[in-house]
Design a protein that fits this description.
By secondary structure, the protein is of the alpha+beta class. 14% of the residues lie in helices and 27% in strands. Strand 2 and strand 3 form a beta hairpin. The C terminus is likely disordered.
Length: 88
Amino acid sequence: MPIRTILPGTKVRIKEYNESPEFWDSEDTMMGYCGKIMTILSECHANTYSMVEDNGRWEWREIDFEIVQLPGKTNPNFLFKMNKKTKG
């Protein structure tokens, strides 16, 4: 399996959980980001990343999110979903 590098600027959607995973903060602050689009700031360790939107406060594991847009690329499906959601 090829190694995938997730670059700064990549847009990701944080997965939604019914309850806070044991590896997340005990105050459930990270739960507030579930379902939200965030931007990769940098790689912290292997497969963990900091995000722009939380000012690099948390380390997010690669299994906690899905990529929705690569840096410098426009994903028309992503834009359609955003526009569809806002039109009501």
